[in-house]
Design brief:
By secondary structure, the protein is mainly alpha-helical. 45% of the residues lie in helices and 9% in strands. Strands 3-4-7 form a 3-stranded antiparallel beta sheet. Bound molecules: glutamic acid.
Length: 496
């Protein structure tokens, strides 16, 4: 393939299920490869398996692709010159292509019944034949006779004629290097079934050739299909693209990633509140490296720097802890305004703390809350529990253990009283985190109190528990009236 051929890649999911981590990574690599090379990224829906493909799955896949930010240049919803992009809408194309090969003598009608095929296979087994594939029974039927039988209504499949002198099929794989298959082991496999549907190996090649795909980046579970697909390219007289078969993704136990390992669909990660940029970043690292040490690789860098040379042929291990860490890094790197708008407020709305479309506070309030929560969480939904105390008004829910340990003691009364005095001396205009922190700071020494115990008492009084965001900011966010009311309420609790 010449260097001037414009790069075209495709992601071709079968809508037999949701988009899974492995598929998402394949999509990311294709997208990034297209973007890094000024190429075209095509999305094609391989829905030829009618029993397992559903429209609902297609919609879920498209939604997942959108959420991942993997915009496609041709395909469903965007169109393009090589459509349709659903295989079920291309059945005539496959039929014509298969018939074309028959007309050229590169494929033939096969009338063998399933029973006959089974009997032949058994016989080959009993003979300990090294070749157990199709015995080429129909290969030499005279073409005119074959056509007459087909026209008379006899069911037939269309099989490829694998050239007998083909020799080794060598795949120059961009990830695995040269992989050699012996063409003798390839039987005359079926291209087109008697029910009018194409086989995967045929439809894929017809489409990839028709869509002028230059690089096929896909999971290495398809490596074993590749020699058959090469046979089809050769029969069609189409240029053979560059193949890049990427490794499997394993779970922590070294086994192929599956449901047993927990969430595997992109949808589940979206619902769990992952940041899509972080998710794409982490998946990109499962088998590809920028330089072997950089972990945070923003989307634009990926789209500029991705190359097949840096894709590893070794299986990658999915590490949830690392994904969570990457997610936390992305959250922490957001501006307060972005975090408030994209992470915090949606979560507060989902939790029922805030009404949809109607804010209880000014922007600055959410941004202040964003600034203190951002570095303290790894996943978006964690903001909910950390914000709860701000939305409980006079009905603060106290953590019992914290109350027993830090509040319900005679000694804390004096802490609460002096905190009340110090804070009530600040008026609403001066009610800022730094003023509030300053007002509290001298108190432990003045009271000859243990600093940690003093703050723990105030914290439980204001937030209901000991683990809450920084004091000054928390008090500022609660507002003067609520802060003072909660100190009074805590005073009563401590007395009881
Ligand atoms: N529809 C196939 C799959 O989901 C595509 C494989 C390929 O990329 O050729 O596995």
């Amino acid at each position: 393939m010449s260097n001037t051929t414009p790069i075209r890649v495709r992601f071709a999911p079968s809508p037999t299920g949701k988009l899974h981590i492995g598929g998402a990574r394949t999509a990311i690599y294709n997208w990034a490869f297209a973007r890094a090379n000024g190429g075209t990224f095509i999305l094609r829906i391989d829905d030829t398996d009618p029993t397992r493909s559903t429209d609902e799955n297609t919609q879920i896949i498209l939604r997942a692709m959108r959420w991942l930010g993997l915009d496609w240049d041709e395909g469903p919803e965007v169109g393009g010159d090589c459509g349709p992009y659903w295989q079920t809408e291309r059945l005539d194309i496959y039929r014509n292509a298969a018939q074309g090969l028959v007309d050229e003598g590169k494929a033939y009608y096969c009338f063998c019944t399933p029973d006959k095929l089974e009997a032949d296979r058994k016989a080959a087994q009993e003979r300990h034949d090294s070749f157990q594939g199709y015995q080429r029974t129909c290969r030499n039927i005279n073409p005119d006779q074959a056509r007459a039988r087909a026209e008379a209504g006899e069911p037939y499949t269309i099989r490829i004629k694998v050239p007998e002198d083909r020799g080794d099929v060598i795949i120059h794989d961009a990830v695995h290097g040269d992989v050699t298959f012996n063409a003798k082991e390839l039987d005359d496999f079926i291209l087109f079934r008697s029910d009018g549907t194409p086989t995967y190996n045929f439809a894929t090649v017809v489409d990839d050739a028709d869509m002028r795909i230059t690089h096929i980046i896909r999971g290495d579970d398809h490596l074993s299909n590749t020699p058959r697909q090469v046979m089809v390219y050769e029969a069609l007289g189409a240029p053979i693209p560059t193949f890049a078969h990427i490794s499997m993704i394993l779970g922590a136990d070294g086994k192929k990633l599956s449901k047993r390992h927990g969430a595997t669909s992109v949808e589940e990660y979206r619902e769990a509140g992952y940041d899509s940029d972080a998710f794409v970043n982490y998946l990109a690292l499962l088998g590809w490296a920028l330089d072997g040490k950089t972990t945070i690789i923003p989307r634009d860098v990926l789209a500029r720097e991705f190359s097949l040379e840096h894709v590893s042929k070794n299986p990658a291990t999915f590490d949830q802890t690392k994904l969570d860490w990457v997610n936390g890094e992305y959250l922490a790197a957001k501006t307060d305004a972005d975090f408030a708008r994209d992470v915090l407020i949606p979560q507060l709305v989902a939790a029922g703390f805030e009404k949809d479309g109607e804010r209880a506070h000014e922007d600055a309030w959410y941004e202040l809350l964003a600034s203190i929560l951002k570095p303290r969480i790894k996943l978006a939904p964690e903001v909910v529990e950390k914000s709860r105390f701000l939305y409980e008004g006079s009905a603060l829910s106290y953590d019992e253990k914290s109350v027993t340990k830090n509040l319900a003691k005679p000694g804390t009364l004096v802490y609460l009283k002096s905190a009340y005095e110090a804070l009530s001396s600040i008026d609403a205009d001066g009610w800022t985190a730094s003023n509030l922190d300053e007002a509290l700071a001298p108190l432990p020494e003045k009271l000859e109190a243990n600093k940690r115990k003093f703050y723990a008492a105030v914290r439980v009084a204001e937030c209901g528990n000991q683990v809450s965001p920084p004091m000054g900011e928390s008090l500022q966010l609660l507002g003067r009236d609520l802060v003072l009311a909660r100190l009074e309420q805590a005073y009563e609790l401590a007395q009881a």
